[in-house]
Design brief:
The chain is an alpha/beta fold and 522 residues long. It has 3 domains: 290 residues, Ribonuclease Z/Hydroxyacylglutathione hydrolase-like (Metallo-beta-lactamase, Chain A, 4-Layer Sandwich), CATH 3.60.15.10; 171 residues, Rossmann fold, CATH 3.40.50.10890; 33 residues, no CATH class. A hairpin with a 2-residue loop joins strand 2 and strand 3. Helix 4 packs antiparallel against helix 8. The radius of gyration is 24 Å and the shape is globular.
């Protein structure tokens, strides 16, 4: 009987984030990615559960790229005293440390705020996922690997990295184990990939493929068209007398936006409008990435592109108008963008410009969806500002490009697992693959499922998803619905013509709540 291999989906299964796959076979345990969950509060709580695999049995960790939804829980492995090597490309290693240190800093601040709350008096304290020393332990066990380099893990198990075209240093992972050839996509981007000379591109037993944009077909946008669109957003906002806010994704996105501003200034398309980068993490990542970008050093030489350092400087930006403010985080879930949103969202002159994917359940997703009131850091904020999306910066392959990526890796004799997507994207990509009749039935694994992999055969499910998988991966949890209801009630109450009408509505709501509570007690 052929030796089997198992794969267990600890994250990015039925949801976009929390990438983490455990592969076991030939006496080896390999973890591919160990990322943070982002989205609803229910999903984010998974970050604080015990790691869902036995860290003491891990022989190797392979990191596809540095984004926190792929790397953000890596230090937790080393916090337990384990020391498996973590393999990644050199650019990923360079930008990983500032990303994780910033994550640890945000966790520490969040924990401190939560533990100070009066309603938590006497309750067990919260603790951050990891601290600086845990990150140091991880970095001491990083082994860098170039694309196409074959790495022997022993027992006939090996792997190599292929260029994934997503961000600098991003990789897909090919694993040879128990007589099988597996490929895990990581995040796939557009453009021409670096190929491994003399190496076979296709012919896999099983593929794990992302589907972040699995339901989207993007119109191809030339760089000059993207820059012209950005210039128009700036001009329209400044003409109205407001600020243009751009939530910052620290890796690649911020650097591309700044390079576009450089080009627009150099060409005379934009006058010397002030551009403030109010994102300490993006600044650090920019410095780490300079050697990988042709004109990166120019970003540091422009007097009207200013890097904001201190919190005091950041708060001073609330006093200005007619500027571009690029601030973290990219999905508005934390960072300095939030206090800029509080000040600018109520202003009709201002504009919020999204340049990247907004995971369901995040504040960015709520705003992009057209919410007229949101809750930010305990404040109910009216949304009068214009909300726009500029798709030309995406580093994710769209629906057609994902199908093409899979086509490039034929023949595929076993199963294609479709991961890293919201339900629409997962189902759309799976449907497209089914329609080609070139593959076995694609599988959309759920959180916690384990599958048995055999050479040249369809995978077989060995264990079911965790009991709460469907609830955890829903686009909205009860906390999201409560926030939406709170905003809706407030808007409707305020819209009533008199205080008497408002009092009547509130009494009606109170009676409905009392009736529900009495019904539950019966």
């Amino acid at each position: 009987m052929a030796e089997t291999t198992n794969i267990k989906f600890h994250g990015a299964a039925g949801t976009v984030t929390g990438s983490c796959f455990e592969i076991r076979g030939s006496g080896k345990t390999i973890i591919v990615d160990c990322g943070l969950f982002q989205g609803t509060r229910s999903l984010e709580r998974l970050n604080f559960e015990k790691l869902p695999f036995d860290v003491e049995t891990v022989d190797a960790v392979i990191l596809t790229h540095a984004h926190l939804d792929h790397s953000g829980r890596l230090p937790c492995i080393y916090a337990h005293g384990c020391k498996p090597p973590t393999y990644c490309t050199p650019p990923t290693a360079d930008i990983l440390k500032p990303l994780l240190l910033d994550s640890a800093k945000l966790q520490a601040a969040s924990v401190e705020r939560r533990n100070r709350r009066a309603d938590r008096a006497g309750l067990p304290p919260f603790f951050p996922l990891y601290t600086g020393p845990d990150i140091t332990k991880l970095m001491n066990n990083i082994t860098t690997v170039d694309y196409c380099e074959q790495v022997d893990l022993g027992n006939g198990v090996s792997f190599r990295l292929w260029d994934a075209r997503h961000i600098v240093g991003s990789a897909s992972v090919e694993i040879n184990i128990a007589g099988q050839r597996l490929l895990i996509s990581g995040d796939i981007g557009s453009g021409t990939a670096i190929q491994c000379a003399g190496q076979e591109l296709g012919g896999y037993d099983h593929i794990v493929c992302e589907a972040t944009y699995g339901a989207r077909e993007r119109k191809e946008t030339l760089i000059r068209e993207r820059r012209e669109a950005l210039a128009k957003y700036v001009e329209d906002t400044l003409k109205a007398g407001g600020n243009l806010l751009i939530p910052a994704f620290a890796v690649e996105r911020t650097q591309s936006i700044l390079e576009d501003f450089l080009a627009l200034f150099d060409a005379g398309r934009l006058s010397s409008v002030n551009v403030f980068l109010d994102a300490p993490l993006a600044q650090k990542v920019t410095m780490a990435m300079l050697k990988y970008r042709d004109n990166g050093a120019d970003l540091l030489k422009r007097p009207n592109i200013r890097f904001i350092q201190s919190v005091a400087e950041s708060k001073q930006l609330n006093q200005i108008t007619g500027a571009v403010i690029i601030a973290g985080s990219g999905m508005c879930e934390g960072g300095r963008i939030r206090h800029h949103l509080i000040r600018n969202l109520p202003k009709r002159q201002s504009r919020l410009l999204f340049t990247g994917f907004q995971v369901a359940g995040t504040l960015g997703s709520v705003l992009a969806g057209g919410a007229k009131m949101v809750r930010i850091s305990g404040n109910d904020v009216i949304v009068n500002a214009d909300i726009s999306v500029l798709d030309g910066y995406s580093n994710h392959a769209d629906r057609g490009e994902l199908v093409q990526w899979i086509e490039e890796h034929r023949p595929i004799s076993g199963t294609i697992f479709v991961v890293h997507g919201e339900e629409e994207g997962l189902q759309s990509l799976a449907s497209d693959l089914t329609a080609t009749e070139c593959y076995n039935q694609p599988v959309i694994p759920r959180l916690g499922e384990q599958w048995e992999l055999r050479p040249q055969a369809q995978a077989q499910r060995q264990s079911s998803a965790r009991a709460d998988a469907e609830q955890l991966t829903a686009p909205q949890d009860w906390t999201s619905r409560l926030a939406a209801l709170r905003s809706s009630v407030q808007q409707k109450v305020l819209a009533l013509p008199s205080d008497q009408d408002r009092d009547k509505m509130l009494k009606s709501l109170e009676r409905a709540l009392e009736s529900y509570q009495q019904e539950k007690l019966r």
